[in-house]
Design a protein that fits this description.
The protein has nine helices and eight strands. It is α/β, with parallel strands linked by helices. Helix 3 (74-82) links the parallel strand 3 and strand 4. The longest helix is centred in the C-terminal third of the chain and has 19 residues, at 153-171. It starts with a strand and ends with a helix. Residues 230-235 have low confidence and may be disordered. Bound molecules: D-xylitol-5-phosphate and zinc ion. Zinc ion is lined by residues 9, 34, 36, 67, 180, 200. Its EC number is 5.1.3.1. It holds the Pfam family Ribul_P_3_epim.
């Protein structure tokens, strides 16, 4: 049985009231807090860094899922580990030495994710998949919240599901597939059936006043997913 997790992205929260927003989605039933870090260099937007991460960390006990959209990556790892990150994901294009960056994150006792842009092929995973805890599949181009889900992501997820299942069988270690961008109640079931375990949702959660209702309706849709069919379709 796969466990489905919902990770609201703070990018769409009210930045003037971040602590309240975090408490609100925690009470609303979120599983992880997704923390988007943008540097106006790797992506054309600028958000927040480790200082804000550590400032809001005391306001929830949920895992912090830090998504680095920055280059370089390595100089930020220690600070985010210190700031309370539980997962740190980075983009392979943003690191000169992907294998080294994975080892660096792991050395801080933080779970490691590799983030794949819509045009990044699954082949970047060839020599590192067994080292990862999370594969973060971008279903929009990184940089902004509120974009539309790119449909070809579903095919990518199905192919990735097969590889991830085979890898987990071989290693006996858990490995999660996370999807990020344009996820909402109306498409979440199809995304889950294609193979995702963790669902980042920014505007679909923070863009509405009743966050508990938003998360409940996503969970309602997820409950309809026939995983068996999803796996069969993936194979
Ligand atoms: C985009 C970010 C996403 C974003 C998702 O670069 O990585 O996490 O916040 O927002 P929605 O759910 O609105 O597409
Ligand atoms: Zn993100």
């Amino acid at each position: 049985m796969r466990e489905f997790l919902i990770a609201p992205s703070l990018l769409s929260a009210d930045f003037a009231r971040l602590a309240d927003e975090i408490r609100d989605v925690t009470a609303a039933g979120a599983d992880w807090i997704h923390f988007d870090v943008m540097d106006n260099h790797y992506v054309p937007n600028l958000t927040v860094g480790p200082l804000v991460c550590s400032a809001i960390r005391p306001h929830t006990s949920l895992p912090f899922d830090v998504h680095l959209m920055t280059t370089p990556v390595d100089p930020l790892v220690a600070e985010f580990a210190e700031a309370g990150a539980n997962v740190i994901s980075f983009h392979p294009e943003a690191s000169q030495h992907v294998h080294r960056t994975i080892e660096l994150i792991r050395s801080h006792d933080v779970r490691v994710g590799l983030a794949l842009n819509p045009a990044t092929p699954l082949s970047v995973l060839d020599h590192v998949l067994e080292m990862l805890d999370v594969v973060l599949v971008m279903s929009v181009n990184p940089g902004f919240g509120g974009q539309a889900f790119i449909p070809h992501t579903l095919d990518k997820l199905r192919r990735l599901r097969v590889r991830v299942d085979a890898t987990m069988q071989r290693t006996g270690r858990p490995l999660q597939i996370e999807v990020d961008g344009g996820v909402k109640a109306s498409n979440i079931a199809g995304i889950a059936a294609a193979g995702a375990d963790v669902f980042v949702a920014g505007s679909a959660v923070f863009g509405v006043s009743d966050r508990a209702q938003a998360i409940r309706s996503m969970r309602g849709e997820l409950a309809t997913v026939d995983e068996g069919l999803g796996f069969a379709a993936a194979k």
